[in-house]
Amino acid sequence: MNKLCRQVSIESPGPIIKDCVFSFEVPVPDVPATGARIRVVCAGACYRMRNRSPSTSSISSVSSVQSTEDYGYNPAHHGMRDGALFPGYEVAGVIDELGSDVTPSEYIAVGKRVVLYPYDGIPHGYAEFIVVPDLIYLVPVPDNLPLGVAAMLPSGALLAKNAVITAHAHVVELLKERSADHIVRILIVGTGGLALWALRIAEHNFKTPEYQNRVKITVATLKDEGFIHAADELKTVNLVQWNEDLYEKQLIERTKDACSGLVDIVIDFGTTSRSLHRSLQCLNSGGVVLVSEEVAERLLPKFSRLIHERNQKIEAVAPGSIDQLKQLVECVASGDIKPPPHTEFAADEAPTVVQKLCHSEIPGRAILRFHDIQ
Predict the structure, then answer these.
(1) How far is the CA of 240 from the CAs of 144, 251, 284, 368, in angstroms?
(2) CA distance 75 to 275
(3) d(C-alpha 212, C-alpha 193), whole Å
(4) Is the four-CA dihedral 36, 129, 326, 294 of positive or negative sign?
(5) What keywords sit in the KW lines (predicted)?
């Protein structure tokens, strides 16, 4: 009989937050012949998407687009809808056992520290022990990179990196098409870890001479202590607060003032039509809003008519590749990209953590720790 280990499962938060976190015991999984079993040390507080209805009605009127009756929207869930809590799978740990057909190497051996790339078919929930069918999904973690930091990389940071890479391609085209003195304006929308990652990755990505004084970044965020700290070190980045108590027109004008006009690219980590509609109001004709695949699937039908009328585009950003994850690990370990602040919690505290994230009460990222291994 297999031994048992604990598992924490976080579902997409619904109207009742406490109903989205489950903890139970599961058998310790057997090791696949060509894979490995991982002892999970740290895991990012991400949720697994519930099954969603495939039908999303197309709503063409602007007033409908601004409706607050969006999937998952609740005034208490600002954090959830603006990127403090997002779907994904973030695991860092140590190799517990290798499959019978695997030959150990310098970087892949029992006891080695790794992060797990969130491949299709990844197990549901965070168990103390998980298995991977193939070693290609494991990325070695350097000794100088804490596992609590490494656990932030496979979903949130990876999505942010791919969003910045996608934005970079648009920047290159804009600089070719526009006049020599044109400044490409980028607006990053969100709060918590996702937007902080995007901000720091973008700063690193556009620091080379050809982009100096040619790219301007602004961040629109809810109240978040993480950005208050970031503002001290990122002097070239403008911050604008989206206070939901203000009228929509005031928020749009405040954002355009902070950006010195309409922007060319928006990286939007919001999850409601209200956030996306606001982003479009701050966007130039011919501009693009980058959103996650989850948000695009759900909201794009509502905006098809509006973006056609305004000559704008909404583009879905994929979660990112395993090669990008390897690059992230290298850049964070070397200090080229500074990770956002994070707070570690015991895995048993997951229900409290999710509740705090839904209220944007945790600066940066929340990490669940299963074992006291560094």
Answers:
(1) 35, 9, 18, 30
(2) 13
(3) 25
(4) positive
(5) Metal-binding, Oxidoreductase, Zinc
Alpha carbons 245 and 368: distance in angstroms, whole number: 33
Pairing of strands 126-127, 129-132: unpaired
Q: Tokens 């297999």 identify what position? A: 2
Q: What percent of the chain has pLDDT over 70?
A: 80
* Residue in 194, 193, 113, 144 with CA at minimum distance from that of residue 332: 144
Closest CA to 140 of 111, 107, 117: 107
CB of 345 closer than 8 Å to CB of 369: yes
Distances (CA, A) of 55 to 52, 207, 302: 9, 43, 12
Q: Crossing angle of helices 273-281/293-309, nearest 10°? A: 40
Residue type, 183: I
pTM over the 0.85 mark = no
H or E stretch including 189?
Answer: strand 184-189
Q: Which helix (H) or strand (E) holds 84?
A: none
Three-class SS state of 62: helix
Q: Are 226 and 343 in contact (CB under 8 A)?
A: no
Whole-number Cα distances in Å, 355 to 87, 179, 351:
15, 48, 6
Query: Can you tell me the distance from the alpha carbon of 150 to that of 337, in angstroms, rounded to the nearest whole number?
Result: 13
Exposure string for 251-266, b = 16+ CB within 10 A, e = fewer: bbebbbebbeeebbbb
Q: Tokens 């519930």 appear where?
A: 50
Residue 285 has φ and ψ, to the nearest 5°, of: -60, 135
Give residue for tokens 């606001």: 278
Between the alpha carbon of residue 92 and those of residues 114, 126, 147, 153, 327, the distances in Å are 6, 11, 6, 9, 16
In the prediction, which pLDDT does 80 show?
Answer: 44
| Residue 218, both tokens | 């602004």
Separation of CA 373 from chain center: 25
The number of residues making up the chain comes to 374
Token pair, residue 275, equals 């956030």
Identify the DSSP state of 156.
Answer: I
Q: What is the dihedral of CA 55, 22, 137, 327, to 10 degrees?
A: 80
pLDDT in tens, 36-72: 999 999 988 876 654 433 222 222 223 333 333 343 4
